[in-house]
Amino acid sequence: MNCLDGSSGQFGEFRKDDFEADWIKVAECRFSQVYQVKLKLWREKCVLKSFDNNFYSRIKNEVFNIAKLKFKYIISIYGLCSEATAVVMEYMSNESLNTLLASHTLMWPKKFQMIHEISMGMNFLHSMKPPMLHLNLKTSNILLDDHLHVKISDFGLIHWEQGGSETFTEHLTARGNISYIPPETFTQCSSPPGTSFDVYSFGIVIWETLAQQKPYVGCSLTTVLLQVSEGKRPCEKMIPDQRPSECEQMITTMKQCWHQDPRKRPPFSDMVRRTEALTEIMKIAGPMKFHNGDVGQKSDHLRLSFPEHKISLTEKPSSSSDEQYGKDGLLSMLTKKDFGSFKQSLKKEHVSKQFSGQRSILHFTVESGDLETVKHVLSLGAEVNCATARGYTPLIIAILHRFHDTASLLLDHGAAATQGDGDNWTPLHFAAQSGDDKAVRLLLDRGAAADAQENAGWTPLHLASQNGHETVVRLLLLRQTGSTVIKQKEAQGRTPLHLASTYGHMDIVKLLLSQGSDPNATSKSLSTALHLSAERGHYRVVRELLKSGANTDCADSRGYTPLHLAAHSGHVGIGRQLLANRANPDPRTLQGWTPMHLAALKGHEAAVVQLKSHGGSVNAKGENGWTPLHVACHHSNPEVVVKLLAGQADPNLTEDTKGWTPLHLACTAVSFPSVLQLITYHAEVNAMTSAKATPLHLAAQHGCIPIVQALLLNGADRKLQDSSGSTALQIAQRCEKWEIVKELEKDNTVWSFDTSIV
Description:
With 758 residues, the protein is α+β, with helices and mostly antiparallel strands. Among the domains are: 12-90, Phosphorylase Kinase, domain 1 (2-Layer Sandwich), CATH 3.30.200; 97-285, Transferase(Phosphotransferase), domain 1, CATH 1.10.510.10; 304-454, Serine Threonine Protein Phosphatase 5, Tetratricopeptide repeat, CATH 1.25.40. A hairpin with a 3-residue loop joins strand 11 and strand 12 (359-360).
């Protein structure tokens, strides 16, 4: 090995025998294999990313320059190992953001922090002269360290090819990047990509992080290309409704990043400032009292409040009487941590002084973190249970800051472990939410009530279950009286099991079930834990609930069963489990929709096939007589149309209100592939609605030449009149679809259908 040591900053040329023999393969894709290895000299884990010979020979000179870049939010490159045609780089213990988003539910402050750190890393790369473009920015190339901080990898390895945009796009698409490629790249222009390319990709990454979903799930490559080119983007509605107000600003930034016009996308230098400001707000807000509404429901009165996590010592006094304490006096001494001067200056009369927000000297002293100073203030007779305007006691402040010794001292001096804030959040609520098991033990030993409910009915067990703190859950269950805690419901009627199931905390789910939690308990919306886990895609939780006797066919207040929710979200594995446990494949919602209707609505063809194979009806009629085929055609999901027709869906069934067939809807939705499939399966091309409109009338109205041609070639009668007496030609003239007019005016013998459009 030619480098000296891990801190030298020199570029290394490694040999295979520089590493210990046990290489662990951690990832493999079409173009590379990734191994966790250990360097003998450094005794340090690192990553060896091996490429095929052609790609390695192209990038090895680039890697030398990339390795010179050192920054907190980009991955460090140590060197090359030519024997393995590999790049040697920094090891990241928590894999990629892509993996994390799929396996854990992140709290909003963590999401904002990660988005900000990504913008920091990209801003650094773009600040190079010339800017270093990533061109491969996606969640799988955003890696995470021990503390879930971000480092960007694989930058600078993709380059614009001389073959132009088509070759470049093919190169990226082969790497699974289709969702991250901006629309201008699909055109046949010869201009190489600029910084706006990475900004677009970052917009998609923001959406993934906020929604914790993958973009364009179930869509074919062609569908994605068409949708993106037409200005369509991942659905904003998939970002949870239960979100802090700051999220709206982040969504605005996201939309600007993926703007159709690359000139209108903001630079990373701008986004760093925006994301930093939003992240700081979230930090100041502290741990969120975040009460989610039931699955699938929007709540106009969603309760989002932010506890006063830090009482600012540098805050400008709000009244003139505070100035002697805040400018050069007692508060200033605490801010500067000049505890000796503070204790010498503090008089007994000061401890009863109220500052802005009804805060006392004791509040400020507890936050300072100095135990001896807190003892001194208490010795002067400070009221240990004094509360701020928001109801925060010194004990709550100590718990929020994890000052365990201070909390114990306050309890020794009579602090009430059961006294809550203005929302009746007790110190135990805060400790449970943050997973502070040491504080939980202390509070329970000093009389804190494990079954205490705050104003919205949440217990500490609800909070610990929601946030995945298994140790805290165990502690709380040990201190419960009978089985009251485990069965308690908050205001929306959810038990701790509902919350653990919603967020996929498998070990907590097993623990709660083992302690007698009812898997069939319902919330006010009649949702069970199985409903919530099935919709969120938590396969292992669903399996555990089913093993414990969860009812597969229970319906919520809208008539949705767990199978409806799994089908709607495209969770085929969960659907398989439910059906294997004898779930009814054709239950009806209050609107008459079956799971197959919902799978067709969202474009999940695999779910459609699965439901059909288990006896689901492809011709079931829902609201207004719509079949799954009607739904798929209306929402332009041609892949689903293919599966339904292959499963013997009737292309000529009419819905109840207007007499529309699936072909009418496909023409209205301008879904050319769906029209072709319907015609192939003998859809009646001259079928009339109740207003006597034929598919040709609708195709003429919407101006799609290929659909008009396909209908005419298959026997559509251009002379038929609708209820107003208009032919398709007259409708095209009225709608000023002049190209359609030309087509309809042609003689029948002139038709030549352009099959290249298929």
